[in-house]
TrEMBL record:
GO cellular component, one term: plasma membrane
Residue runs in coiled coils: none
Lipid bilayer topology: Single-pass type II membrane protein
SUPFAM superfamilies tied to this protein: FKBP-like, Triger factor/SurA peptide-binding domain-like
GO molecular function ontology, one term from the record: peptidyl-prolyl cis-trans isomerase activity
Gene3D superfamilies recorded: 3.10.50.40, Porin chaperone SurA, peptide-binding domain
Domain PpiC: 249-368
Protein name: Parvulin-like PPIase
Length: 630
């Protein structure tokens, strides 16, 4: 979303790290001790600062959409609550409110001039490729996010004041050297392991399952094969591509664009040009007469004490010559000609020594592409106006179908789509807006107006409605048989691989060398060197590498391979402890950040104990959809 772009880079790194650590700390310790009833419109308050239910819900839904986008599938409110997303966001907002309250108590402030300078200097608020701040473009960004300049500036001022407070506490923390050395040794220790990789092929083929076996598996895992909830969704997508078809581009328009942008369609003509600038027109004309009488351009330059460095412009395109009159003359003269031209800075003797013809595609070959580009460009300019028309129609009570018909837009209807964006046949449905639209559609009831989804990079807008709901249901065995067979095969294959790996491990632990174990199983023995904690290497994932560091030198173990369901049976053959003079700069920086975060967390906890934190349990549950009907 553009709003995320507006905020990108605005928050200090200390604040970001602090809020992450704060969230994790709250999740571990809980905040139940501050949950008490309060007013009807705020989910929480910190001192005199209140967090409204509307503000919390907006931020909650925004985070839910972001997570759905990253996951590539919609995350339901129930799943979000199971992950603790609602508590995380509330804790973040409580942290912000605590900082705002303390900043107010300390009378911290940021001037209008500083905020204006920060906004103007931030490249995220400029047009793509622009080097300077464009107020018109900035207003466009604000408008597309339903923000006023006053509201955004107030938000940035609030953020800047928080940063002042955080940076005054977290900077310059010294880390004890003994701690740095210990962490450095832990992080930089390396190990070498011999291993055997056990694959499904090594475990052997599975016997074909009978219907009785499959039915028993189906009965034991019936919930896995339930038909998901489906929803019928109407979607109105407004993008440059959807508007471009309605734009008219004449052949004259395309021809004019072709002439303006000839460099796009080939290589421009280039010429080697020399010039001598005269302050006196009479001197220039006299030199021109000498050349006509037989003197060379080089003779005139030498007589004036000029070298090639003073006269040569090089092999240049017409656009590279700054003076238009000189450029026109140089590119209209034949090769070898010399002419006196009245230029911007005086009379100039121009000499063309070489002509390199340009090459370009003919207009007819690129006409269609130029027309398409012009239609798309015009559609981009018309996008916001069309957006406002759609919003006006919706505000008047029109349905999306009525809006589409009146404004000549296309309304797409998806009769049945699940939360992951698939139809009942399992095919993906190409829903405009993807996870954002699906997440919102599954959170809404039929007939309820939903929020507009803005596509990334100002790519357009999507409006949607939930038309009907088909509830989830249990499938019959016959309906699910193919899926049951696939899932049973997957499960049994994993069990077979695990059993084979365990058998090999038992033989190695009983005293048989791992090389012999591998040979008897007709599997290759391989070696992984330089293994380090938390870093994937060879068949070991970043998570499974921990198994290698859980055993002593000469010890054996099993790890889940990076590619499931493979297993790795390994022996740690060598442990290498880093030397005392190792580079500990990375460990020092990381420890410093963690200690800074601890200081900030303690400071925040102290403030909250002093000024008080209250949370409205009932309103909090309603805002996340957990207790809307209670």
């Amino acid at each position: 979303m553009v709003l995320q772009t507006l905020r990108k880079g605005a928050s200090g790194w200390i604040a970001k790290i602090f809020l992450v650590i704060l969230t994790l700390s709250f999740l571990v310790w809980g905040i139940a001790d501050v949950f008490r009833g309060m007013g009807a419109t705020s989910v929480a308050s910190v001192g005199a600062t209140e967090i409204s239910a509307d503000a919390f819900r907006r931020q909650y839904l925004d985070q839910l959409q972001q997570i759905s986008r990253r996951a590539g599938r919609p995350i339901s409110p129930d799943q979000a609550r199971a992950f603790g997303l609602d508590r995380q966001i509330l804790n973040q907002m409580i942290a912000d409110a605590t900082l705002d309250e303390q900043a107010s108590r300390l009378a911290l402030a940021v001037s209008d001039e500083q905020i204006a300078r920060e906004i103007a200097d931030n490249p995220n608020y400029r047009r793509p490729g622009a080097t300077s701040f464009d107020p018109a473009y900035f207003q466009q960004l604000l408008r597309s996010n339903n923000l006023t300049e006053q509201r955004f500036v107030a938000s940035e001022r609030q953020r800047a004041v928080r940063d002042q407070l955080l940076k005054s506490l977290g900077a310059g923390v010294a880390v004890p050297q003994v701690l740095i050395d210990a962490v450095g040794r832990f992080e930089n220790e390396t190990r070498t392991a011999s291993y055997v990789r056990v694959t499904p092929a090594a475990a052997g083929p599975l016997a074909a399952p009978t219907d009785e076996v499959l039915r028993a598996y189906f009965d034991a895992h019936k919930v896995t094969f339930r038909a998901p909830e489906y929803r019928k969704i109407s979607v109105l997508a407004l993008t440059p591509a959807t508007l471009a078809a309605a734009e008219t581009v004449t052949e004259a328009d395309a021809k004019a664009d072709y002439e303006r942008n000839l460099s796009r369609f080939g290589t421009p003509e280039r010429r080697e040009v020399q010039q001598i600038v005269f302050t006196s027109a009479a001197d220039a004309l006299a030199a021109d007469e000498k050349i006509k009488a037989g003197a060379s351009f080089a003779d005139i330059a030498a007589a004036r004490g000029l070298t090639a460095k003073d006269t040569d412009l090089g092999l240049v395109a017409k656009s590279a010559i700054l003076d238009p009159k000189i450029a026109d003359a140089a590119f209209s003269m034949p090769e070898g000609a010399v002419s006196a031209v009245e230029g911007r800075f005086g009379t100039v003797l121009v000499h063309v020594t070489k002509v390199e013809p340009g090459a370009r595609q003919p207009f007819e070959a690129v006409k269609d592409q130029i027309s398409a580009d012009l239609r798309l460009d015009r559609a981009r300019r018309a996008l916001l106006d069309k957006h406002d028309q759609v919003e006006d129609e919706r505000a008047s009570g029109s349905t999306l179908a009525e809006v589409a018909q009146k404004l000549g837009l296309r309304l797409q209807t998806f009769d049945a789509v699940d939360r992951s964006g698939h139809t009942p046949s399992g095919d993906p449905a190409d829903v405009p807006g993807g996870a954002d639209v699906l997440s919102g559609a599954f959170a809404a009831q039929p007939g309820v107006e939903t929020d507009t989804v803005q596509l990334p990079q100002n790519g357009g807008f999507v409006w949607y409605e939930t038309n009907a709901i088909t509830p989830a249901r249990d499938r019959t065995f016959d309906e699910a048989k193919s899926a049951v067979t696939a899932r049973w095969t997957e499960s049994e294959t994993e069990k077979a691989v695990e059993a084979k790996a365990t058998a090999l491990l038992d033989k190695a632990k009983a005293g048989t060398p791992l090389a012999q174990v591998a040979a008897e199983a007709d599997l290759p023995l391989q070696i992984a060197e330089g293994l380090r904690r938390g870093r994937a290497a060879g068949p070991f994932s970043a998570e499974s590498i921990a198994s290698v560091f859980d055993v002593k030198e000469g010890g054996f173990g099993i790890a889940l391979a990076a590619t499931e369901p493979d297993r790795v049976v390994f022996e740690v053959t060598k442990i290498m402890v880093p030397p005392p003079d190792m580079d500990t700069s990375r460990a020092s920086a990381e420890l410093s950040r963690q200690i800074e975060n601890d200081v900030l967390l303690q400071y925040l906890s102290a403030i909250q104990k002093e000024i008080g934190v209250k949370i409205n349990d009932k309103l909090f549950a309603q805002a996340t959809g957990a207790g809307a009907t209670n």
